[in-house]
Amino acid sequence: MDLSFLLEQSVIRRVFWAVILLILGILITRIICRVLARALERSRLEKAAHSLISSLVKVSLYLLMGLIVASTLGIDITGVVALASVLTLALSLALQNMVSNVIGGFTILYTHPFHSGDFVEIAGYSGTVREINMTYTMLSTADNVLVSIPNSTVVAERIINYSTAETRRVEVKVAASYAMPAQRVIDALIQAGTMDNVLLDPAPSAVVTGYGESAISYSLRLWVKNADYWDTYFAVNQRVKEVFDQQGIEMTYPHLNVHIAKE
Predict the structure, then answer these.
(1) Residue 152 to residue 102: CA distance in whole angstroms
(2) 133-178 pLDDT tens trace
(3) Are residues 171 and 227 in the same domain?
(4) Is residue 32 a contact partner of residue 57, using CB atoms and an 8 Å limit?
(5) Nearest-angstrom CA–CA distance, 68 and 18
(6) Domains of the chain: total
(7) N or C: which end of the chain has fewer CB within 10 A?
(8) Residue 57 falls within a domain, yes or no?
(9) Which range of residues forms the domain containing residue 201?
């Protein structure tokens, strides 16, 4: 039998099995991706992680399938794997910051320090979390400015999440004259804090917090639902001034009294 004929038959068989493996690989990859997508939808992971995880799994499966098909065709994949490793290392060094952000994104999505819609404070910025993608966390501030914070910075900074509990404490600090009886000021503060949206359990309270050079410091503390925090905070600040004016309680400011002795 002609040697060339045998070689031709061998090549045809390899191509045939390579095509079969390619078709099976594509079908298996699609099935796995569909099952993964359903599992992600049922999971508690952020929506931002779904596309990334699906993409990484899909790329990994296609790369594995490509190596298997190449091996079936008789191609030496050792050099390909070595080249891929070198390229991966080079890209990792070149894109070090991006890799750090991606790792930070996975850390955020795994540890769940906050979710989309939470009001948080990160790296000196306060705002509502609008999006958590794999490189940046997007915050919308109170004045509607969108702040993008790198995920590597987010995981390294202190995170304050104001939305983890259903209620939040409002604290208003004021100063009143030494001439005013402390209990009178405390009663006026509690009156100012008794208003709509303020919870009765725990009830509003007011305390003396310190004695300054020209005034006594007080703190009015009351609890509200998270959604009512800012509206209540601003309303109570205004209400305190109104009640103090009605009851003749003087809010003081730093001043210096000079006494001149007559000889």
Answers:
(1) 8
(2) 778 889 999 888 999 999 889 999 899 998 888 899 999 999 998 9
(3) yes
(4) yes
(5) 8
(6) 3
(7) C
(8) yes
(9) 167-247
